[in-house]
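Protein: Protein YIF1
Species: Myotis davidii
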Amino acid sequence: MHPAGSAAGTPRQRKGPSKRRIPVSHLGMADPHQLFDDTSSAQSQGYGAQRGPSGLGYPTASASPQAAFLADPVSNMAMAYGSSLAAQGKELVDKNIDRFIPVTKLKYYFAVDTLYVGKKLGLLFFPYLHQDWEVQYQQDTPVAPRFDVNAPDLYIPAMAFITYVLVAGLALGTQDRFSPDLLGLQASSALAWLTLEVLAILLSLYLVTVNTDLTTIDLVAFLGYKYVGMIGGILMGLLFGKIGYYLVLGWCCMSIFVFMIRTLRLKILAEAAAEGVPVRGARNQLRMYLTMAVAAAQPLFMYWLTFHLVR
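Structure follows.
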């Protein structure tokens, strides 16, 4: 038996394996309660950052191929030279396009609205009651067609040509004669006759030495108005036969004849119209004959391009 004092003073030791705490630094973790390593600092450095060869963990600067290309002075000079060449080429193309196709002038001929189109169609069908045929000017520049019914436009001739081709296809279809080739031949022949008209008038104006402000686009516009009457004649021919065709086409032929005479005389006979009195002379008689010939050719072309479409 042991004395009571020794039993009370000496603690009892528990046998078994003793547990030893492992320092935090041995685990490689900053926080003992953190389950995963914090990699946000590495991501914030960017994916392009690389470890240095020394293994110290400092990222080395790595430039991308684009940055290296832009940093090269030779490449910068090449880019500047290429940009200047592209700008010069664009300017050259714009000048050549404007020389052969005056885009800025074409915008003027399409500056129309619904009111102008209605008035112009009425003038084409009933030109007998119209009195003032002068084109209005503003600071030596003709006003837009939507402000002056006497100004030429390209909207009505273009739409009338397309409609004429469609109506011709309809007429051929009602007669069981429709074919894409025949419709294409109809459109190409109408366009070819229009081109020949313009070239013949330009040659005649050159031979007669007429000083006029009549341009090629004006001629295309004035000569294209006849398609409106041609459409009316074909439609009446489809509805009422030959009688309706000849009645409506005859009226439209007389209307376009009067319209062309009163319009072109202010363009071709500008000097006589400005003075208000007829100027005698062989040259002015040639101008008058030329005006009459252009006006008289319109009914002939209207009949030639439509008579075979109505049976």
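Remarks: The first helix runs from residue 4 to 9.
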